[in-house]
């Protein structure tokens, strides 16, 4: 990747120092501790918006233990409602490589008889199937091609679906009673999802609660806490740099 010029930055990154400097998103457990420290009860309904959480659903276990009413668009919307949002589409086969069709017992016996003299080495085990997430994005083609291939119709449809889900999450985030961003203002100069929601809420409903956490200070305070008292005495955490847009 470096020789091809795909990656121009250093691959060796000190994740701990970047985390302490506030350059990494807040983890779901850290968000839950901050919300508890602010005073939200365990019965608060939390809508999880945005893209897939880094680490998968297992990273949401601590947050779900603090707030049982943790929902997202898949749990609030039925399959029919999501289908109505997308609209009618022509059925198309997926563009992922398909495994070979299974062979019958007769075909296996015939291949065994034609295999030659015995003993002979065992055939290699069949390759495992490809998962959808392994072929999405740039990491799906970087090891196979030198240039990015043209997107297929299935890829265009997948991107269109993702835009619809992001628009749905954006609408819910703007209309919510309070908004807590896990990550915003990355310093690149380009607007991100959370920054757009925060600006829209400030313009449309300036009286709404929109938190702007200082990730560097809050991560330092949370990392220094006693893990044995993380849930029982979570309200003693010193919340610093956490301002809300209550005007």
Automatic annotation (TrEMBL):
<keyword id="KW-0119">Carbohydrate metabolism</keyword>
<keyword id="KW-0735">Signal-anchor</keyword>
<keyword id="KW-0328">Glycosyltransferase</keyword>
<keyword id="KW-0472">Membrane</keyword>
<keyword id="KW-1133">Transmembrane helix</keyword>
<dbReference type="GO" id="GO:0016757">
    <property type="term" value="F:glycosyltransferase activity"/>
</dbReference>
<dbReference type="GO" id="GO:0016020">
    <property type="term" value="C:membrane"/>
</dbReference>
<keyword id="KW-0294">Fucose metabolism</keyword>
<dbReference type="InterPro" id="IPR019378">
    <property type="entry name" value="GDP-Fuc_O-FucTrfase"/>
</dbReference>
<keyword id="KW-0812">Transmembrane</keyword>
<protein>
    <recommendedName>
        <fullName>O-fucosyltransferase family protein</fullName>
    </recommendedName>
</protein>
<dbReference type="GO" id="GO:0006004">
    <property type="term" value="P:fucose metabolic process"/>
</dbReference>
<keyword id="KW-0808">Transferase</keyword>
<comment type="similarity">
    <text>Belongs to the glycosyltransferase GT106 family.</text>
</comment>
<comment type="pathway">
    <text>Glycan metabolism.</text>
</comment>
<dbReference type="Pfam" id="PF10250">
    <property type="entry name" value="O-FucT"/>
</dbReference>
<keyword id="KW-0325">Glycoprotein</keyword>
């Amino acid at each position: 990747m470096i020789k091809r010029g795909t990656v121009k930055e250093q691959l060796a990154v000190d994740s701990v120092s970047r985390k302490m400097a506030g350059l990494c998103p807040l983890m779901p457990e850290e968000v839950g501790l901050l919300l508890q420290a602010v005073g939200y009860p365990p019965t608060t309904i939390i809508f999880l918006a945005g893209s897939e959480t880094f680490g998968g659903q297992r990273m949401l276990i601590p947050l779900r233990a603090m707030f049982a009413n943790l929902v997202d668009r898949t749990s609030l919307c039925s399959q029919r409602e999501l289908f109505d949002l997308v609209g009618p589409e022509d059925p198309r086969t997926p563009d992922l490589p398909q495994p070979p069709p299974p062979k019958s017992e007769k075909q296996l016996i015939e291949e065994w008889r034609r295999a030659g003299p015995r003993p002979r080495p065992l055939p290699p085990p069949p390759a495992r199937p490809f998962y959808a997430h392994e072929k999405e994005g740039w990491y799906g083609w970087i090891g196979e091609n030198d240039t990015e291939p043209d997107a297929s119709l299935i890829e265009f449809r997948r991107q269109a679906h993702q835009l619809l889900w992001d628009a749905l999450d954006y609408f819910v985030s703007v209309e919510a009673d309070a908004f807590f961003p896990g990550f915003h203002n990355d310093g690149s100069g380009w607007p991100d999802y959370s920054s757009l929601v925060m600006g829209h809420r400030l313009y449309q409903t300036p009286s709404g609660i929109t938190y702007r956490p200082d990730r560097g200070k809050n991560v330092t305070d949370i990392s220094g806490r006693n893990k044995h008292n993380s849930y029982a005495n979570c309200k003693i955490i010193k919340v610093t740099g956490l301002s809300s847009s209550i005007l």
